[in-house]
Design goal:
78 residues, two-stranded antiparallel sheet, three-stranded mixed beta sheet, 0% helix
Length: 78
């Protein structure tokens, strides 16, 4: 897993957050991606991203996830 875009820190989609390895909390049975108003590298917000770009490809099958997120302006649960 990667915790940044491979082309970081390039801004895409006019995003307002900086993806930081510090944008996560872990527990024995969970991973939490935390978005918060925190000035980092010239951005007003910090968040986390998880990607397998260039490290993993799957052609068949499926993934299953149980997730919760808050609703609000500017959130994108992609």
């Amino acid at each position: 897993w990667l915790t940044a875009y491979s082309f970081a820190p390039v801004v895409i989609n006019q995003e307002l957050q900086f993806y930081s390895p510090g944008g996560f909390t872990f527990g024995s049975d969970y991973l939490r991606i935390v978005g918060e108003r925190k000035s980092v590298n010239g951005f007003d917000y910090q968040s986390g991203i998880i990607t397998t770009n260039g490290r993993f490809v799957q052609t068949f099958g499926y993934f299953e996830i149980r997730a919760r997120w808050t609703s609000g302006r500017g959130l994108w649960p992609a």
